Amino acid sequence: MPLNQIERNGPWDLLVAGGGNAALCAAIAARRAGRSVLIVEAAPKFYRGGNTRHTRNMRCAHDHATDTLTGPYTEEEFLDDLLRVTGGNTDEALSRHMIAESKSMLDWIQEQGVRFQPSLGGTLSLGRTNSFFLGGGRSMLNSLYATAERLGVEVVYDAEVVALDIEGRTFRAATVRHDGADIRVEAAAFVAACGGFEANIEWLKEGWGEKADNFLIRGTPYNRGTVTRMLIDAGMQQIGDPTQCHAVAIDARAPKFDGGIITRLDCVVFGVVMNRDCERFYDEGEDIWPKRYAIWGRLIANQPGQIAYVVFDAPNIKRFMPSLFPPVEAPTLRELAEKLELDPRKFEATVTEFNDAVVGGFPFDHTEPDGNRTEGLPVGKSNWAQKIETPPYYAYPVRPGITFTYLGVKIDQQARILMNDGNGTPSDNMFAAGEIMAGNVLGQGYAAGIGMTIGAVFGRIAGQEAARHGA
Questions:
Q1: Fewest CB atoms less than 10 Å from the CB: which of 147, 171, 215, 398?
Q2: d(CA 364, CA 76)
Q3: Element housing 354 (H / E)
Q4: Which residue among 369, 386, 401 closes a domain?
């Protein structure tokens, strides 16, 4: 139904900007509390859901094994993992609150129709910590949309928020562009759950410079940060570094936008990574993959031309989840280098130097640090070091794949957006959830599944608090 027809039912108790996990959790929570809710989603219906469409799992604390998880994952262990990957660059009180709230999320989100499958094995090593959605992120989204619509939440697609009417600390209305018309939508409360600005290359350049032209955007092209910019310009408190983001190594042959999970590569720990000058530049075996996969996008972003190559040999080809594209293959290292358009002499020398430095001889186990390492190299490999000596040889070209950005708005434990007034005064009726406030938890770094935790937990909180505001 067109927005101008739906708007006749207004003013609304709650207007939600966005259509992904965080937005839906907010809408469902508020609707279950008896509030009228309108979701405006900038994307067409087919592309609804933002980056949630490409997710697979969610990380939640739990005290015991379940049907889909192999053991307990305590709040303290979750916090330790978060502090490790962020280097302590997090609002610890807010993060503790999120982790505590995550314990009930596994049951709550299943009550909204979402189903889980047993956790995947392979390089992911997440069987104890992360719950995997049955059917993936799109299936999870479809379940949440079905529940929201059954409860009476109204949803309008191709509906972009282009202006906000904010008086001091109070939201009054949003101007929403739909079917070529700008329509004023009034509401008693507003939840911003419309993603980061990763699809806005010009904004990325403000932090990264011209390097950003070579970034690939893993998710939706609709996350351009327009609401984020409007909120900050209207006096909301900003948080986060414009260069910090969830950035992984993805296949360099992936499309510019929306390549999703199938372009990500999990083979780094099985070989070596070198830049276009055939130089290794970081420890491929620093820690288990779920705690380090999200550093590789930033590492590659700082290499010449923002490109690198993951090189491995025949025994490892079946040890990881393949990408959408097949690896480059050759019977010799020299021929592999030529196919990659790299200097064959330098390429062979780097692999030979690595092979000569491998020590350990322990049983290979990619699920735990195994002590197989190198010695004497300028850039060592701490674990999972194996000689690359068995043909055929393989390589994947990789570029930075940006999932979402961390610069956004600051919130409190009630998901209220805080004002930039020197005191951090909470806004009266504005809330945020998901990527737009992820920088409160993720000052830097990432661990698998935390993005969905942030969205679900603070989405539910935002919806509940917005419902109380309208009571």
A1: 147
A2: 29
A3: helix 344-357
A4: 401
Same domain, 286 and 414: no
Alpha carbon distances (Å) from 410 to 238, 325, 415, 424, 426: 6, 39, 9, 9, 10
Return all residues near 19 (Cβ < 8 A) that are at least 6 apart: 39, 41, 42, 43, 48, 49, 50, 155, 157
Six-digit token string for 335 = 């021929």
Q: How far is CA 96 from CA 72, 112, 259, 300, in A?
A: 17, 24, 33, 32
CA pair distance 52, 158, nearest whole angstrom: 17
List the structure tokens of 101: 């709230």
Torsion sign, CA atoms 209, 296, 399, 90:
negative
Domain boundary among 355, 370, 401: 401
Q: What is the CATH number of the domain that holds 385?
A: 3.90.700.10
CA dist., res. 388 & res. 57, Å (int): 32
CATH number at residue 114: 3.50.50.60
Calpha distance 118→402 (Å, rounded):
27
Count of domains for the chain:
2
DSSP three-state, residue 136: helix
Task: Name the residue with tokens 């609150």.
Answer: 97
Domain ranges, residue 369: 247-401
Task: Give the tokens for residue 443.
Answer: 């000052």
Instruction: Spell out the per-residue pLDDT of the chain, length 471, in tens.
Output: 677 767 666 799 999 999 999 999 999 999 999 999 999 999 999 999 999 999 999 999 999 998 889 899 999 999 999 999 999 999 999 999 999 999 999 999 999 999 999 866 555 578 899 999 999 999 999 999 999 999 999 999 999 999 999 999 999 999 999 999 999 999 999 999 999 999 999 999 999 999 999 999 999 999 999 999 999 999 999 999 999 999 999 999 999 999 998 999 999 999 999 999 999 999 999 988 777 888 999 999 999 999 999 999 999 999 988 889 999 999 999 999 999 999 999 999 999 999 999 998 899 888 889 999 999 999 999 999 999 999 999 999 999 999 999 999 999 999 999 999 999 999 999 999 999 999 999 999 998 899 999 999 999 999 999 999 765
**Which of 271, 282, 368, 354 has its CA nearest to residue 312?**
271
Q: Which tokens in the block code for residue 216?
A: 């690939």
Alpha-helical (H) ranges within 155-278 are: 201-208, 226-233
Whole-angstrom distance, CA of residue 44 vs CA of residue 67: 36
